[in-house]
Fold:
Amino acid sequence: MYQIVPIQAQHDADICRIIQQVGAQYGAIGAGFGPSDAEVTCMSQHYVAEQRSQYLVALLDGHVVGGAGIAPFLHYREIAELKKLFLLPSSQGLGIGKALTQACLAFAQAQGYQQCYLDTLSSMQSAIALYESLGFIHLDQPLAGTLHGGCDVWMLKNLPTTESICGRERDPTS
Structure:
C-alpha cells in the first residue's frame, strides 16, 4: 500500500531523480520543460503553505515513487497550477497518480483557488486520460505566461467553491 505525505527535505533528492528520469523518458529535457526548473533540486523549499503551495510525495514500502504539487499560477490569485506529477513506471497503474492529483485539487480548493491549470506533453497519454477523468478540459493554447514552452497540451479545471461543495450554490448576484 502507498502513502501520500507532504514533501520533506529528506525526499528532495529522490523526487528530483524521479522527475528528471521520468521526464527524460518522455523527451522533457532542457529549457521549456518542468524537469529543468531550478526548483526540482529542492522541492521542499519551494512548496510551502505560506505561498499557497504544497508538494506531495507518494511512498511505496517507505520509498519515494513519485509526487505532485499545487502552486499559484504566476500572479493570478484565483488560478492554481498542478505541477510536476511524475511517477516511476513501476508505480503506475496503482491509483497513485489519481490520489496525488485529487489531494492537490483538494488543497487548491481549501486555499480558495477557483481554477486549476496544467501543461503536459501529448506523449503522456495516461496522464492526459487521468486529467480528463477528473474534469480537466483541453485548451487551444497555453494560458498567458506559461513557462513550459515545450509542452503541447494545456488543460484547465474549474474548482467547486466551498459553498457548492456543501450543497449551497453561490448566488452570483449576491
User: Anything to note?
Assistant: Confidence is low (pLDDT under 50) at residues 164-174. The longest strand covers residues 63-72. Helices lie at 12-25, 43-46, 96-110, 125-133, 162-165.
